[in-house]
Amino acid sequence: MKKRGIGLGCSWYGTGYGNGFPDVSSAFVEIHDDGSATVLTGAVDVGQGSNSIFAQIVAEELGLEAQDICVYSGDTDATPDSGTTAATRQTYNTGNAVLKAVRQAKSSLLVYAAREFSCPTPEGIELKEGYIGVKGDPSRRVPLADLVFQARLRGERFISAESSTARSTPVDPETGQGAPYWPYSFGCQSAEVEVDTETGVVQVLKVVAVHDVGKALNPTQVEGQIAGGVTQGIGYALLEELELDEGKIKNPAFSSYLIPTALDVPNIEAFFVEDAESTGPFGAKGLGEPAMLPTVAAIINAIDDAVGVRITSIPATPEKILKALAEKNGEVNR
């Protein structure tokens, strides 16, 4: 017999290395005389889209398009250290470093432009749609590329290097108090499952996921990260089990260490709540790991709702579910 159930899971997660550990990211930015800009950062894009985010941050500040920005990343010979791609930290930490760097380069550019346009203050200069000029006076503007080219001929360069450090403090071992992480991410997910009581097999039918992302700099990537996190959460809840024998891994291949395939992924409805994080780049904060955390609780709770057994160790394999059902039925028979 197949029975269905629905479960809910919620999470909060402190991003970054935390507990006072030095959490530093660095970036270089240069504005070029063809109207483009370059970002150099040690942050490694492993598919989560950090390079796209850094390009968007620089483009937003300079009034350009993301395709006008070249991002060079992860080259230890040429790029500054930006820490590991871990702890849900790259958008927040390295994003802040990139934002500080581009604003520093932009500041020098605005000072130069103010002199060229005989504007009394750099605050009177704006960058917009690939042009630079005096605010409110369309007749006094030129292509950004032209101005930077002329500046280059006069020996001016608009290059900057900046770092950003996430602020956290160690927890007091006596009181347990402190500020070990910042910022925090929050999420809530519901899962609908179908449990086969004869085989113990669980099929996840649907997941609805809602996450607090600060400000979504790239909504499509946010939805993609949520979907990816949910998929990993399904593997965490139902499939992935590392088997050890005297310290040796017994299932070192994907034929025996199972992860979800496309056929295991259910309908995922991804939503996000935008509440800008004041310390993040344009209000953004991380989402990578938090997206998978509520999935596990939601699935385990849904199994309980479907067949009335509480699985207390993961993954919730068919063997564990059948054993729990047998124990439950045995208690009923007594």
Broad shape: elongated
Derived from helix and strand composition plus strand pairing, the structural class reads alpha+beta
- What name does CATH use for the topology of the largest domain? Aldehyde Oxidoreductase, domain 4
Q: Compute the CA-based radius of gyration.
A: 25 Å
Q: What percentage of the residues does DSSP assign to strands (E)?
A: 25-35%
Order of helices and strands: EEEHEHEEEHEEEHEEEHH
Q: Mind telling me which CATH architecture of the largest domain this is?
A: 2-Layer Sandwich
Low-confidence stretches: none
* Relative helix content: 25-40%
| Biggest beta-sheet profile | 4 strands, mixed
Strand element count: 13
Strand order of the largest sheet: 1-9-10-13
Distance between the termini: 23 Å
Give the SSE layout.
Blueprint (H helix, E strand, L loop, with lengths): L1 E13 L9 E8 L5 E5 L8 H13 L6 E5 L16 H27 L8 E4 L2 E4 L6 E3 H10 L4 E8 L18 E13 L5 E11 L6 H21 L4 E2 L2 E2 L17 E7 L19 H15 L10 H16 L1
Parallel strand pairs: 3-4, 10-13
Antiparallel strand pairs: 1-9, 2-3, 2-8, 5-6, 6-7, 9-10, 11-12
Helix pairs in contact: 1-2, 4-5
Structure, explained:
Residues 2-266 form the Aldehyde oxidase/xanthine dehydrogenase second molybdopterin binding domain. This is Molybdopterin-binding domain of aldehyde dehydrogenase. It comes from Desulfosporosinus hippei DSM 8344. This protein has six helices and 13 strands. The mean pLDDT is 95. It folds into two domains: 2-15 and 181-333, Aldehyde oxidase/xanthine dehydrogenase, molybdopterin binding domain (Aldehyde Oxidoreductase, domain 4), CATH 3.30.365.10; 24-165, Aldehyde oxidase/xanthine dehydrogenase, molybdopterin binding domain (Aldehyde Oxidoreductase, domain 4), CATH 3.30.365.10. A four-stranded mixed beta sheet has the order 1-9-10-13. Strands 4-3-2-8 form a four-stranded mixed beta sheet, covered by helices on one side. A hairpin with a 2-residue loop joins strand 5 and strand 6. It is 31% helix and 25% strand. Helix 1 (50-62) packs parallel to helix 2 and helix 4 packs across helix 5 (293-307).
